[in-house]
Amino acid sequence: MTFHEEILAGIPARLPEAKPYDTEINHAPKRKDILKPEEKVLALKNALRYFPKELHEALAPEFAAELKEYGRIYMYRYRPSYQMYARPIDEYPARSKQAAAIMAMIQNNLDPRVAQHPHELIIYGGNGAIFQNWAQYRLVMQYLATMTDEQTLVMYSGHPLGLFPSHKDAPRVIVTNGMVIPNYSKPDDWERFNALGVSQYGQMTAGSYMYIGPQGIVHGTTITVMNAARKVLGMRSRVKPGMREEESRNGLLFVTAGLGGMSGAQPKAGNIAGVVSVTAEINPKAAQKRYEQGWVDELHDNLDELLPRIQKAVAAKEVVSLAYVGNVVDLWERLAADHIHVDLGSDQTSLHNPWAGGYYPVGYTLEQSKEMMADDPDAFRMAVQESLRRQVAAINQLAGDGMYFFDYGNAFLLESSRAGADILLPDGRFRYPSYVQDIMGPMYFDYGFGPFRWVCMSEKPSDLAKTDALAVKVLSEMAENSPEEIAGQMRDNIRWIEEAGRNKLVVGSQARILYADCEGRTRIALAFNEAIRKGELEGPVVLGRDHHDVSGTDSPFRETSNIYDGSQFTADMAVQNVIGDGFRGATWVSIHNGGGVGWGEVINGGFGMVIDGSEDSARHIREMLFWDVNNGIARRSWARNGAARFAIEREMARTPGLKVTLPNLADEDLIRKSLN
Ligand SMILES: NC(=O)c1ccc[n+]([C@@H]2O[C@H](COP(=O)([O-])OP(=O)(O)OC[C@H]3O[C@@H](n4cnc5c(N)ncnc54)[C@H](O)[C@@H]3O)[C@@H](O)[C@H]2O)c1
């Protein structure tokens, strides 16, 4: 069958040939055996409903074996036979250009260069799924290939409920992932629902077809590391006349963990920020992948060799990224024992998913951990918690010696506190801030800056270079008149884009990310639309973002951790955001339970928008991006965040029709007196 034929066939009438289990590929760990015998019957019945009855006799034992072997039914046999990668938009069978763009985005997520466990349809974060099984993938591609601009595809946690009539301004796809009744949102509930085949953890850009590989996070990490150095370590004051700012950071030591999907961006960000970075990674396959991609400079598996190497790099102020292929706890304990001065510390293991392969406990090999996780989950849980207590003890010692440690949005502080580690201050707060509290929140989100991204649907590097140039032009024009509060953010982003091509950040589709505010995102998008209209770009462009943003995500330990009016545990903002995007021109919208910090811990939403040079696209850009940013600024302003108040008042002054409720600030002494 050709590529077109295979897509149009959906789930083929005849049984496709079984696919061999590819041992070269990084596979998801075996999930824990959570279903009771009767529930296993249900899981099989659920899986078989995708297939005609005459195939059940062949498929039932095969799916039963997958459930037993892997804890899930992935339907490996139904993996397509064509190569998985984002093709130029014209190569897809489609009646709707918008749907073709979504097909390309889906295939990019599943590209083995991009996805973490591509055969289990896991894109990043250990459990961030795009679909639950290959039948869902095949059906979705068939629906997208046949739908028109007057239909909407409805997605329930990877399952395509079907195509429903709508209209051209409606989203082509609406995605919900992991939406459950709040009382059933514990990690084990996810394990059960996922094993039954009725829900999935979509993370965010995994389940919303918007993942662009580690580039997305390189940018955020670069900004975080640079600003941690500037703000917290006071490096800005060390910039001497004639010195480039990044030189002031040379010789700083940044220690962290994780070379996975997102965390793999840390060494690259360290290099761009100009520091020495050391990243621990327990999985040699993950470390090797990043090394081969040029994202980390050196791999070391022996601490006796690594320690002198670190000291040499720091002394010589080298800009270099070192990886320790081993457990991060061993690294921290050794650094503490040898009293090595560490400037910046963090952790990006997948602690949002601590019991199912997100964090590997010290003292066990990767294989031992995987076995224990499946065969003795209680022992595994205890080993993880002991490991976290040890990790925190070493970090505390180094922090006592002057290290600035920050939580990197992976639930490290939360899980460490649950493990009984020494991570709380006497008043119950965490000892360490999240990077949002100190850096991203007050300097970026409150002003509406967030991770605007785009993907060129021609898949041509030349188109990406043209869009880069347009973005620099727009931001440079804006920077001339920017108020002081946001001038630095503009400069950082201009420099980022100017150097993006040289840093070879593209893995998979021709995508770019930068941080911009509402005005920046809108003006850049309109410039792209105009360039498409004039034929200067060779194809449409998809706009989107991740969850690490001002409005899309309610996450009390991450994106909304700098909300202090008590509303950080509410999720109105994220839900409103997706509803509002849906009727203002998004091509697809998605809302998820669980993002970076774990199932039940966050609600986040996203969008994708295909722009094609038309007047409709220009209208969608203006209407939807405005809401997508200002919803969150308005909420942050209501929570009394000063920068957000500044930003929303500035927006109201220039936008007729925007009227936001502003808070009155009460005198705290008066309140305390009144209460006593
Ligand atoms: N702050 C942010 O902006 C941000 C962005 C993305 C992801 N995150 C969070 O960071 C975490 C990592 O994301 P990811 O996509 O890289 O996940 P991932 O699962 O792909 O990578 C995590 C890596 O950590 C390694 N690891 C686990 N335990 C270890 C240990 N004890 N020692 C050494 N290595 C160990 C794993 O082998 C894995 O490769 C997630 O929790 C995610 O939600 C934060």
Main sheet record = 9 strands, mixed
Query: Distance between termini?
Result: 78 Å
Amount of beta strand: 5-15%
| Gyration radius, rounded | 24 Å
Average pLDDT for all residues: 94
Low-confidence stretches: none
- How many individual β-strands? 17
Shape: globular
- The computed structural class is alpha/beta
The count of helical stretches stands at 22
**What is bound: which ligands?**
nicotinamide-adenine-dinucleotide
Helicity range of the residues? Answer: 40-55%
Describe this structure in words.
54% of the residues are buried. The model has no long low-confidence stretch (mean pLDDT 94). A hairpin with a 3-residue loop joins strand 1 and strand 2 (128-129). Helix 7 crosses helix 8, helix 11 packs parallel to helix 13 and helix 20 packs across helix 21 (642-654). The strands form three sheets. Strands 3, 4, 5, 12, 13, 14, 15, 16 and 17 form a nine-stranded mixed beta sheet that branches. Strands 8-9-7-6-10-11 form a six-stranded parallel beta sheet, sandwiched between helices. It is globular, with a radius of gyration of 24 Å. It is an alpha/beta fold and 676 residues long. It has 22 helices and 17 strands. The chain has helices spanning 3-9, 37-48, 56-70, 97-110, 134-146, 187-196, 215-232, 265-273, 284-292, 303-315, 328-337, 366-375, 377-400, 412-418, 435-443, 461-480, 484-500, 518-533, 572-582, 615-638, 642-654, 668-675, and strands at residues 122-124, 128-129, 151-156, 159-165, 173-177, 253-257, 276-281, 298-300, 320-325, 344-345, 404-405, 450-456, 511-516, 541-545, 553-554, 588-593, 603-611. The structure holds nicotinamide-adenine-dinucleotide. Nicotinamide-adenine-dinucleotide is lined by residues 116, 124-126, 217, 220, 257-263, 280-283, 286, 327-328, 348-352, 358-360, 408-410, 548, 596.
